[in-house]
Design brief:
By secondary structure, this protein is α/β, with parallel strands linked by helices. It folds into two domains: about 170 residues, Peroxisomal Thiolase, Chain A, domain 1; about 150 residues, Peroxisomal Thiolase, Chain A, domain 1. Helices cover about 35% and strands about 25% of the residues. It has a five-stranded mixed beta sheet with strand order 1-7-6-4-5, sandwiched between helices. A four-stranded mixed beta sheet has the order 8-13-12-11, with helices on both faces. The protein has a two-stranded antiparallel ribbon with strand order 2-3. It binds oxa(dethia)-CoA (UT7). The site of oxa(dethia)-CoA has 20 residues, from α2, α6, α8 and β12.
Length: about 325
């Protein structure tokens, strides 16, 4: 099996910023509540008419440039998203067209907030087996399109953005281990009920706000802490390492209190944990993707460093990945 690594990263965040102060004018909430309960200060919101593929393409172009790879050399595009432009075709196909990446096989992955980690795992298996040479993996979301702006328990949490990575064969280091898990018995905890084949769009589904995110946050919180801690421990063991060997953790950014609880369970020093939740909120699959990109760009990840990606989301699904840079 070939060694596979990340050879380029990129991101794109929409320009519009929605602050906690803005939200105070929209629902019964406060900057103090949002900051202390979640760690979020502001989030980005896509422009009217801007779709997930637009964000994905911009992040992909940045990642290709960073990797020094031309679009026609990409032979696999995987987009992790729960907010595609439309039900079909896949966002990956739209990205392929916009990039003129005619040699790529394209598909989307639905693994919510763990989507970027799932996509990295799938792409790395394509490359390791020799089925692909250069893969473009993107986590892109416009969660503002499925956010109920009248529901204070969810609307303060989410944001829009995209992050991308180019995966190729590497001579040393690369992805040391991955670990994925799912529990469909908890599907009810976080979902958008309508708009699929179970509950197609009708006047009634729109009026009853069934096309928006419904979340049982409190129950999810405990599941998130346990699943992320378990996934991190399992993947570190699989890589033959100890948690203390990790130089930087890139966790899913749903809630700073979840991240702190995971760090405590693993005995990890908090200054080894990368956060961008304060600026962007929870962007589902785009959270780990943009955090990885920013950590690289800011010099928080250097050659030889061991990086842990750790994510959890609706499904339920969880996934972790250890990469030697
Ligand atoms: O990304 C995928 C995975 N997502 C997660 O894992 C999210 C996990 N859950 C969470 O992060 C947290 O549960 C939330 C941030 C969603 C909520 O925090 P919490 O500490 O669990 O709050 P809660 O839902 O237990 O609500 C506490 C109180 C309630 O009031 P009462 O019943 O105590 O009077 C809520 O009505 O806070 C109230 N509340 C708010 N108050 C001001 C809920 N939302 C707000 C708000 N502003 N925006």
């Amino acid at each position: 099996m070939k060694k596979v690594g990340i050879i380029g990263v990129g991101e794109y965040l929409p320009q519009k910023i929605l602050t906690n102060a803005d939200l105070e004018k929209m629902v019964d909430t406060s900057d103090e509540w949002i900051t202390t309960r979640t760690g979020i200060k502001q989030r980005r919101i896509a422009a009217k008419g801007e779709a997930v593929s637009d964000l994905a393409v911009k992040s992909a172009k940045a990642a290709l440039e960073d990797a020094g790879i031309a679009a026609h050399d990409i032979d696999l595009i995987i987009v992790a998203t729960i907010t595609p432009d439309m039900q079909f075709p896949s966002v990956a196909c739209l990205v392929q067209d916009a990039l003129s990446a005619g040699n790529a096989v394209c598909f989307d992955i639905s693994a919510a907030c763990a989507g970027f980690v799932y996509a990295i795992d799938v792409a790395s298996q394509f490359i390791a087996r020799g089925a692909s040479k250069n893969a473009l993996v993107i986590g892109a979301e416009i969660l503002s399109s499925v956010t109920d702006w009248q529901d204070r328990s969810t609307c303060v949490l989410f944001g829009d953005g995209a992050g991308a990575a180019v995966l190729s064969e590497v001579k040393s280091g690369g992805i040391l281990a991955t670990y994925l898990g799912s529990d469909g018995s908890m599907a009810d905890l976080l979902k958008v009920p309508a708009g699929g084949s179970r509950m197609p769009a009708t006047d009634k589904t729109v009026q009853s706000r069934m096309h928006y995110i419904k979340m049982r946050g409190n129950e999810l919180f405990k599941k998130a802490v346990n699943a992320m801690a378990k996934a991190a421990q399992a993947v570190v063991n699989k890589a033959g390492l100890k948690c203390q060997d990790i130089d930087l953790v890139i966790p899913h950014q749903a809630n700073v209190r979840i991240i702190s609880a995971v760090a405590k369970k693993l005995g990890l020093d908090e200054n080894k944990i990368y956060l961008n939740i304060e600026k962007y909120g929870n962007m589902s699959s785009a959270s780990t993707a943009t955090a990885l990109c920013e950590a690289v760009k800011e010099g928080r990840i250097k050659k030889g460093d061991v990086v842990l990606l750790d994510a959890f989301g609706a499904g339920l699904v969880w996934g972790a990945c250890v990469i030697k840079w």
